[in-house]
Amino acid sequence: MSLDLHTSSFTGRSLIEASAGTGKTWTLTALYARLLLEQQLNVSQILVVTYTTAATAELRERIRARLAELLALYEGTPSADGFLTELHRRHPGEDARRRLLLAVHGFDEAAIFTIHGFCQRALQDAAFEAGGDFDSELTQDDREVLDALLADAWRHVLAEADPAWARFLAKQKVTPASLRQALRSHLGKPYLRIEPREPLGGDELAVASAAWEHAEQVWREQGAAFVAQLHAHGGLSQSTHKSPKFELWAAELDAYFADPAALFEQPDGLAKFGAAALLKATKKGFDAPQGPIAEAFDTLLDALAAALPAGRQKLIALQVQLLDQLNAELPARKAAQRLLAFDDLLNRLNEALHGPAGADLASTLRSQYPLALIDEFQDTDPVQYEIFDRIYPAIPDAASESRSGPGGDLCFVGDPKQAIYAFRGADLATYLRARDAADRQYDLPFNYRSTPELIAALNHLFDRPQPFAEKGLDYPPVSAGSKSRARLVLPADDSDAPLSLVWLGNDGLNKGRAGEIAAIDTAQRIAGLLAASAQGRAYFDTDGQHTPLKGGDIAVLVASHREAASIASELAARGVPSVRRGRDSVWHSEEAGELAAVLAAYAEPGREGVLRYALATRLLGRDALQL
């Protein structure tokens, strides 16, 4: 149902589903102001949770500014905000003004946290109920502790490994560092079901090791004679078994059998000198070369082919074992060192809420925060949801409960369409479960960010059953908001459709080539639009006033830093400067290098080489003739 910010009920559990551009943050700040006055709360009693530090800071500032504007309205300053004007009409009087005054001046006490910040505050404020330490240190990186545990576990793995298993691990380049990279994102998540759990059968690795030892012995005893036999045969295909290559293959086999650790690094000669390959290469009228070496090589090849998938399964089993071990030992090791990582905050609070004193802890937090607003709820995971589900339990017939009833009031705000990407560990199934448990569901039907034409195109694009191939996840159509905006005018060829797809051609393209073509096409289109702007053919029209289109008005969304660099390079080749966000340091840029050269020349003007290097930079703009 559509949300009416003045009259819609928020008793019990509520959910606001808000697509991008529908004014979610504006709605959240308005809801905060309404419920502050309506439920007669102070800012320390309204819990607001979001999922990043930057979002928390922005939300804090937006809420404070909204309350300050509402307070100014109570003090006689007119406001263009229709919602605040109506809120003032509904809650007149000195009591409301005084509550707002205390809220604005005491806003530093507002309970606006990241999810981890809330868990840390809850564990500190209710340390007795939570059974936690008062002096644990929060660490942003527990890698050092994890590395120490992995190093210990790795030493035990290698100490107990048979030769074939150790050789397989070496081939796969498994190290404590690679294991940390593979396992770290799965640690501290008790809701994960780790599979497989079935015991491994067979001993293919040991069979391969035995086959290698037998082949090594036969090759060492008969290898030279066997190669001489092949040279003298004369009936082998020269396309696959050229005699000049026999010595090369033999040398590779000598090296292979001299190093037991090379078990899985079989050289070409192992297959070429095998019985099956020799039979296939033998010409008509000739008997295929035979002997113990050829048979031993085929046996070894078959054993290696079976051992590789068996080794991979054993590696998976090792990772499962390490996950269990680390999930048990890592929290204990950190507790001994009085350290807490971010996941520990979530898990400790969740464990405390479901422990012997969990009901008392939940009651304490509910009394402290009778109202909770959870922003960006699509980013939640099962542990985070269980925390709020325990603190604010669902109450049957919540609509009939009085406000600030025994279950508290909980409102989730989110966009489930964003949860399908799991940007921050989001879990779509958890979101859908929370939605089913809500007493009511609201939506924001107007988009204020995009043009009506683009909104209509996207509505049409997703107007089909299960547009995201997920039951229960739909694309609710939205309408364009009434917000006035400048109209973008583009050359006729570029403005025919609000949403366009570019077909790269019918020829097969690999990912790299497709990326190159896309980067070139994107740069050409942007350069063309900016050229049209310079000619007065691309602009924003505001009541007849034209504002030229600028590079800063154009955004390019990419999937990786590499794609961003490629497009930036193509834009630079066309004389179009660009700014991109990435992992590269500004100190490693060409401009930083040239600036360092110029500063070095100023620091030591007597050094001719340093001076010449500075003059040759593009920063100083000297050409070859001037130099």
Q: Shape from CA axes? A: extended
Looking across the biggest beta sheet, what order are the strands in?
3-2-6-7-1-8
State mean pLDDT (0 to 100 scale). Answer: 89
The major β-sheet equals: 6 strands, parallel
SS field, number of helical segments: 24
Task: Report how far the terminal alpha carbons are from each other.
Answer: 73 Å
Helical proportion, percent range: 40-55%
Strand content: 5-15%
E-strand count: 13
Uncertain segments: 400-405
Radius of gyration of CA atoms, rounded to a whole number: 34 Å
Return the structural class: alpha/beta
List the helices and strands and how they pair.
Blueprint: E1 13-17, H1 24-38, E2 46-50, H2 53-74, H3 82-90, H4 94-105, E3 112-114, H5 115-125, H6 127-130, E4 137-138, H7 143-160, H8 163-171, H9 176-183, H10 204-233, H11 246-258, H12 268-272, H13 275-281, H14 292-336, E5 339-340, H15 342-353, H16 358-368, E6 371-374, H17 382-391, E7 409-414, H18 416-419, H19 428-437, E8 440-443, E9 446-447, H20 452-461, E10 479-480, E11 487-489, H21 511-534, E12 539-542, E13 545-548, H22 561-573, H23 590-603, H24 608-615
Helix pairs in contact: 1-2, 2-4, 5-15, 7-9, 7-14, 8-10, 10-11, 10-14, 15-17, 21-22, 23-24
